[in-house]
Amino acid sequence: MLRITRLLAALMLVLAVGLIGFSPRSSAAPAAKTVTVRAMDGNMFSPATVTINVGDTVTWVNADTDTPHNSVSNDDLWDSGNMNSGAKFSHTFDTAGTFAYTCTYHAGMNGTVIVKAAGGAGADEDAEPTPTPKPSNAAPDDDDEEMPEHAPDTGAGGLASAGLPVGQLAALFSLLLASGWMLIRKR
Length: 187
Prior knowledge:
The protein has helices at 2-21, 166-186; strands at 33-40, 44-46, 49-53, 57-62, 72-73, 88-92, 97-102, 110-116, 147-148. By secondary structure, the chain is an alpha+beta fold. The chain starts with a helix and ends with a helix. The strands form 2 sheets. Strands 1, 2, 4, 6 and 9 form a 5-stranded mixed beta sheet that branches. The chain has a 4-stranded mixed beta sheet with strand order 3-8-7-5, with no helix packed on it. The chain is built from 2 helices and 9 strands. Helix 1 runs antiparallel to helix 2 (166-186). The radius of gyration is 26 Å and the shape is rod-shaped. The chain has a domain at 33-119: Sandwich (Immunoglobulin-like).
């Protein structure tokens, strides 16, 4: 009987540990992203319109080889100042809305950032801005893709920081206690 009890306790432990590997991650908020917008030859922003979520960052890069540009919000939320060739400027968006901006050096050089509330109605978190091809004379840049601003915590923060829901933590703890109790009781 002791052998069956120990086998059952070991099986429960394996089952409990297995819950960790199959925990749903849908309750975790999406990681913040950085989207790159380039100021291009021909006095244009590429892409001219980007759609992001609250908490995401837009980085403007002057990819024009010989002309300075800037990015200035129409409602005074940001001003990059002068950006010579290769210069970068970033702004993180804390609120939902539509934000128009311009390069004050070049008439008609305009762009728009659409910021959606995370989890809000109609928010398409998987939407990516349509990339615009780089001209052949543009400087190479490592910021071509959207990059996470920071990686999720998977360090020594325990099971909760790995996204394990509280209900599953309670069930896991209960199984471990029951297994231990059964082993101690049978000795």
